[in-house]
Design goal:
Blueprint lengths: L18 H6 L1 H9 L4 E6 L2 E6 L2 H10 L4 E2 L2 H6 L13 H11 L5 H5 L2 H13 L6 E3 H18 L7 H14 L16 H22 L10 H11 L4 H32 L1 H15 L13 H13 L6 E5 L3 E3 L2 E3 L4 E4 L1 H4 L41 H18 L1 E6 L17 E6 L2
Parallel strand pairs: 2-8
Antiparallel strand pairs: 1-2, 3-5, 4-10, 5-8, 6-7, 9-10
Helix pairs in contact: 7-8, 7-16, 8-12, 9-10, 9-12, 12-14, 12-16, 13-14, 13-16
Length: 438
């Protein structure tokens, strides 16, 4: 690859390259780097990466030319030791086989059947709060979404086992924290973070094996556990693939939704006029009754709040891919094996496509906007889009509508809202909420 045909490279620092700025503040760093061009070349200790921030080029990577790209090494390394045999860490024919096995549990007709139970579980959770209670909002949303996931998609009672699942998720986030001093060390080095991760994975594996032992195969369209066990009986999945895919669903299936609900409440606290519009809407739609999937299309305001929250705070703030062949992207020749980063964080806040991009404005979704499709892709895109996208969107709308109808929260953060630079966009500050009567 000739130097004249290489993408521009933002300024870095000796030895660390762009890793220092990324570890300190990836959100600012990515937006500043994007100012250098639609494709920029970045260097990190031990590897290089190309950041792509043009919607048409993102669509090409994820959709039009998706057969020339695969899961990145970074993502495979992220899930090493916990989801090695899961769809989240698989490529090629194995990925296709796993996706086919899981897909029946995520069809819309099956997902929409969970709507009533989502509302019931949310109402029960909120009804345990009393006026004046001071809540750790992030912790409450984690418990809520884990119970919703267990009660619906997984068909598993997680009561009393929350700590096992949360500790595994926390250990994975700690292991992938960009600021961790041992981030560049191999996994066999027994750092405190690595030892914590291995203990947490061992405990979660034991719990998952118990879930599998207590479950039975079910036809397509029923719980994910049953669908996976039926696939194992047919010989389509191995025991390790069943276990690791359940692990992936337990972790990602609640964490991303909890993040989104936390930030939705944070923004509603800062914009009481938006919350008032939601209260009026849900009163008009279900008049004191619990919502269900049939109400989804009528909850326009709630959907726009969810969409706007996912725009400002995408749980997966960047998607990664790896080129399987030499490719030309944006006029630049990239070699086979090139690592690509497609940052939702940058595109979702790009002023070329969004008016006042850093402002929380759900009404923008009610206005016509001529923007490229991949200026917004919170669930990634193409064949490898998040398999739980329909479930997550229904859950977020139903849960938020149910909560807004039953409770008001006075949300506070100590200082400016900051994020953990890791696998998902978790809040770094304590997000507190005081329960108020509606």
């Amino acid at each position: 690859m000739g130097s004249a045909n290489r993408p521009p490279t933002p300024d870095g620092v000796p030895l660390m390259g762009h890793g220092w700025a990324f570890a300190r503040d990836p959100w600012t760093a990515m937006r500043e780097w994007a100012e250098r061009g639609a494709v920029v070349e970045l260097s990190f200790p031990g590897r290089s990466m190309y950041m792509v921030t043009d919607p048409q080029l993102v669509e090409r990577v994820l959709v039009a030319d998706q057969d020339r790209f695969t899961l990145s090494r970074a993502q495979r390394q992220t899930f090493a030791g916990i989801e090695d045999h899961a769809v989240t860490a698989s490529t090629g024919e194995r990925w296709k086989r796993l996706r086919r096995a899981l897909q029946p549990a995520f069809e819309w007709d099956g997902v929409r059947s969970y709507g009533d139970r989502m509302a019931e579980r949310t109402a029960a959770h909120v009804d345990d709060w009393d006026p004046g209670d001071r809540l750790d909002l992030w912790a409450e949303m984690r418990r809520l979404t884990l119970h919703v996931l267990g009660d619906t998609l997984l068909g598993v009672d997680v009561e009393g086992e929350e700590a096992v699942i949360h500790e595994a998720a926390d250990a994975l986030v700690a292991k992938t924290d960009f600021r961790r001093p041992g981030q560049l060390l191999p996994d066999w080095v027994p750092t405190p973070t690595q030892r914590r991760f291995e203990r947490a994975v061992g405990a979660l594996d034991e719990y998952i094996e118990g879930v599998i032992a207590d479950s039975s195969p079910e036809p397509a369209g029923d719980s994910v556990v049953g669908v996976l066990l039926a696939a194992r009986e047919r010989g389509d999945l191995s025991p390790a693939e069943v276990r690791d895919n359940l692990t992936a669903l337990f972790l990602a299936g609640h964490d991303s939704s909890a993040v989104t609900l936390t930030y939705a409440w944070y923004e509603l606290g800062r914009h009481p006029e938006v919350r008032e519009r939601l209260v009026a809407e849900v009163d008009g739609v279900f008049d004191g009754e619990l919502p269900g999937a049939d109400d989804f299309d009528d909850l326009d305001g709630v959907r726009t709040v969810v969409d706007e929250t996912l725009r400002l705070y995408p749980p997966a703030f960047a998607t990664s891919r790896e080129a399987t062949d030499p490719v030309t992207i944006g006029g630049y020749d990239l070699p086979a094996g090139a690592q690509l980063m497609l940052p939702q964080w940058v595109l979702h806040r790009d002023e070329r496509y969004w008016e006042d991009p850093d402002t929380f404005d759900p009404a923008r979704w009610e206005r016509d906007a001529d923007r490229p499709e991949y200026a917004y892709f919170p669930f990634s895109g193409g064949p490898r889009h998040c398999i739980g996208m329909r479930f997550a969107r229904l859950e977020l709308v139903i849960a938020l509508a149910t909560m807004v109808d039953r409770v008001d929260l006075d949300v506070s953060v100590d200082g400016p809202l900051t994020f953990t630079p890791s696998l998902s966009l978790r809040p770094e500050n304590d997000v507190r909420a005081t329960v108020r009567t509606t």
